[in-house]
Structure formats: C-alpha cells, structure tokens
Amino acid sequence: MSRITSWHEDTKVLYSLTDELARRLVVDATEQAEHTVGRNHDHMSTAPNEMP
After folding, report:
1. d(CA 36, CA 43)
2. CA 30, CA 22: separation in Å to the nearest integer?
3. Can you tell me the distance from the alpha carbon of 52 to that of 39, in angstroms, rounded to the nearest whole number?
C-alpha cells in the first residue's frame, strides 16, 4: 500500500509517507483531532441547530 520511509536524527526516529494521498489523510486526521480536542463539548449549552 503506501510506503513509509524512516531515518534517525540523534535519538529520534522520523517517518515520512511517500504516498501523497496517504500523507494528506494523516494530516487531515491530525488537524481534525486537534480541532476536536480544542472544542467546547458542552452540547447542552447551544440550541440544536447552532454550531458550537
């Protein structure tokens, strides 16, 4: 499927996706997770049709 490359920098191992579509999916999923974590999850404080 998608190819992952890795290399070492000091004590770190870095990874890179060589497939652009797979890379974009990971970036989009990470951005969505960051957005969700920073969101107000008190769903009872807004009307049903309002966006929090």
Report:
1. 13
2. 12
3. 8
Residue position matching structure tokens 């769903």? 43
Q: Indicate the pTM of the whole model.
A: 0.49
Dihedrals φ, ψ of 17, to 5°? -90, 130
CA dihedral 15, 19, 23, 26 (to 10 degrees): -90
Amino acid at 36: T
Three-state SS at 17: strand
Residue 1 CA, chain-centre distance (Å), reads: 20
Q: How far apart are CA 28 and CA 21, in angstroms?
A: 10
pLDDT tens-digit map of 1-52: 558 888 999 999 998 888 888 889 989 999 999 888 876 555 445 555 554 4
